[in-house]
Design goal:
Mean pLDDT: 85
Largest sheet: 2 strands, antiparallel
Shape: globular
Strand order of the largest sheet: 1-2
Order of helices and strands: EEHHH
Number of helices: 3
Strand content: 5-15%
Helix content: 25-40%
Structural class: alpha+beta
Distance between the termini: 55 Å
Radius of gyration: 16 Å
CATH topology: name from scop
CATH class: Alpha Beta
Number of strands: 2
Amino acid sequence: MKKPPADPVRRSVALSYDRGVEPAPRIAAKGEGALSDIILRLARENGIPVENDPILADALFRFPEGDPIPPELYMAVAEVYAFLIRARRQALEDAGENISAPPSPAE
């Protein structure tokens, strides 16, 4: 009798990017298992949208915290940032806020 496949390891990678200051997003935090759950919980508690992309998380997980993302992952990460922009825009529209003005540099 075959065993059921093992659950894949849950991995989370948090990115940060200070446009105009940093040349590329960097890996702010990463974790597996219970630490992954904590990263996800903190993101949700702080209103940070979460993208579920296990393949990208696995690829980013190979790099140390604090490192910029490697150029070969720029396009994949750009897609995540596009998701975040759409999520933010939708949240503002849902709240009835004006989204025609660009975000302030502090955002």
